[in-house]
């Protein structure tokens, strides 16, 4: 069975600082991996996804994530945080691209001025 | 970008009452999903729907739940007799023929009193 663990329910960074949101997964077969962002009172928006190929994936808003099979990780990073990055971030895994997603518990990112 | 529309944004109901949550998918989408998020918990898969039938459902999706696409446009989730523990944010998600990217609605917050 697949599962996703996000380390840290709440991460706080200063504006301009590195953002690192951690995600580890468990899957018996090569998974598809996703990061979604949820701004207040809005739906989930896809930030980026890994399916096959290049393990460093670039997404919207300057975010990127690296698939590390040996570490079963898919951490999300951004070199310099903006105030507008404050939101809830969800890591998710699935065995096929658009189907049933298994989500992590989410990480709330706060950005301090 | 096209949007998935959910109505209402917030629904308050008494325990034991029936509720219907509505979703208007993106026009050419073929795969439909319902997810829910209980406050403070993970986003959980409920059900997937394709070609006018359920393709997969979770153990949460018991006999109290049903889905349909009655008029070829709206995609609905019905809870027959709501319980307190049904209180959650319910998200509709849809994707097209290639089943590559899920588009999420902004959710319906269901409060069962």
Describe this structure in words.
The complex is a heterodimer of chains A (113) and B (113). Chain A is mostly beta strands. Chain A has strands spanning 3-7, 10-14, 19-26, 32-38, 44-50, 56-58, 64-68, 73-78, 87-94, 102-103, 107-112. Chain A is globular and about 40 Å long. The mean pLDDT of chain A is 91. With 113 residues, chain B is mostly beta strands. Chain B is globular. The chains are: A mainly beta (113), B mainly beta (113). Chain A binds chain B through residues 36, 41-46, 49, 90, 92, 96-106, and chain B through 4, 6, 31, 33, 35, 41-45, 48, 56, 91, 93, 95, 98-102, 104-107.
Give a nutshell description of this structure:
Chain A is an all-beta fold and 113 residues long.
Largest interface: A-B, 21 and 24 residues
How far the N terminus sits from the C terminus of chain A, by CA atoms, comes to 41 Å
Q: Low-confidence stretches of chain A at least 5 residues in length (pLDDT < 50)?
A: none
Tally the helices of chain B: 0
The pLDDT mean of chain B sits at 91
Q: What is the share of helical residues of chain B?
A: under 10%
Element layout with pairings:
The complex is a heterodimer of chains A (113) and B (113).
Chain A (H helix, E strand, L loop, with lengths): L2 E5 L2 E5 L4 E8 L5 E7 L5 E7 L5 E3 L5 E5 L4 E6 L8 E8 L7 E2 L3 E6 L1
Parallel strand pairs in A: 2-11
Antiparallel strand pairs in A: 1-3, 3-8, 4-5, 4-9, 6-7, 7-8, 9-10, 9-11
Chain B lengths: L4 E3 L2 E4 L5 E6 L6 E7 L5 E8 L2 E5 L7 E4 L6 E5 L8 E8 L7 E2 L3 E5 L1
Task: Please name the defining characteristics of this protein.
heterodimer; A: 113 residues; mainly beta; six-stranded mixed sheet; five-stranded antiparallel sheet; 11 strands; globular; B: 113 residues; seven-stranded mixed sheet; four-stranded antiparallel sheet
């Amino acid at each position: 069975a697949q599962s996703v663990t996000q380390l840290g329910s709440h991460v706080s960074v200063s504006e301009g600082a590195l953002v690192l949101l951690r995600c580890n997964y468990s899957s018996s077969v090569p998974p598809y991996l996703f990061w979604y962002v949820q701004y207040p009172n809005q739906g989930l928006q896809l930030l980026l996804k890994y399916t096959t190929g290049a393990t460093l994936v670039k997404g919207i808003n300057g975010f990127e994530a690296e698939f590390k099979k040996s570490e079963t990780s898919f951490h999300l990073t951004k070199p310099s945080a903006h105030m507008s990055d404050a939101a809830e971030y969800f890591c998710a895994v699935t065995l096929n691209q658009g189907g049933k997603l298994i989500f992590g518990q989410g990480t709330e990112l706060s950005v301090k001025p | 970008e096209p949007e998935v529309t959910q109505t209402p944004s917030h629904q308050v109901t008494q325990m034991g009452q029936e509720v219907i949550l509505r979703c208007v998918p993106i026009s050419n989408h073929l795969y439909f999903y319902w997810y829910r998020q209980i406050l403070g918990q993970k986003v959980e898969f409920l059900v997937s729907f394709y070609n006018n039938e359920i393709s997969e459902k979770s153990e949460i999706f018991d006999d109290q739940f049903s889905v349909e696409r009655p008029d070829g446009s709206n995609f609905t989730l019905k809870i027959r007799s709501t319980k307190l523990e049904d209180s959650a944010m319910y998200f509709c998600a849809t994707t097209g023929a290639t089943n590559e990217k899920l588009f999420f609605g902004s959710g319906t917050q269901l409060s069962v009193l």
